[in-house]
Amino acid sequence: MQSADNMNKDKIQKFVDEDINPSLGVHGGYLLIQNFDDEKKSIKVEMGGGCQGCERARITLRLQVEALLREEFPDLGDIEDITDHFSGTNPYY
After folding, report:
1. Torsion angle of alpha carbons 2, 80, 34, 72, nearest 10°?
2. For the residues 59-77, what does the mean pLDDT come to?
3. Which helix (H) or strand (E) holds 70?
4. Is residue 14 in some structural domain?
5. 29-37: strand order across its sheet
6. Does the residue 9 lie in any domain?
7. Is a pLDDT exceeding 80 seen at residue 4?
8. Structural domain boundaries, residue 77
9. Is residue 93 one of the residues assigned to a domain?
10. How many whole angstroms separate alpha carbon 37 and alpha carbon 39?
11. What is the mean pLDDT of residues 40-69?
12. What CATH number corresponds to the domain at position 67?
């Protein structure tokens, strides 16, 4: 578990790469931390690969990814999905 003063974009992305992306990768997807607001402790995320445009992406983000991030970073603020789910070769969103 990371404290608020120890939280930054690189540490969050490292956690995502080690603990979240392997599971998303099973379906050809991944998650990137695009922005971290140090004042609000909020992040903007982008889903890619098989997650971009997937009809289940929102559910995966809210019920699984968000839970894991909040468990590791309890002081994390808002999590905003900035993925363009309507673009790509096969969007379902």
Report:
1. 20
2. 96
3. helix 66-72
4. yes
5. 29-37, 42-49, 79-81
6. yes
7. no
8. 4-81
9. no
10. 6
11. 93
12. 3.30.300.130
Bridge partners, residue 31, by sequence? 47
3-state secondary structure of 49: strand
For the chain, what is the largest distance between any 2 Cα atoms, rounded to a whole number of angstroms? 40
pLDDT per residue over 30-47, tens digit each? 999 999 999 999 999 999
Pull the structure tokens for residue 12: 């969050």
Residue 89 lies in a domain: no
**Confidence class for position 86, pLDDT limits 50, 70, 90:** confident
Question: Using an 8 Å Cβ cutoff, are 76 and 43 in contact?
Answer: yes
Residues 6+ apart with CB under 8 A from 13: 32, 33
Q: How far is CA 65 from the centre of its chain?
A: 6
As a residue count, the chain comes to 93
Tokens of 66: 């968000």
Half-sphere exposure of 49 (CA within 13 A, CB side): 12
Count structural domains, the chain: 1
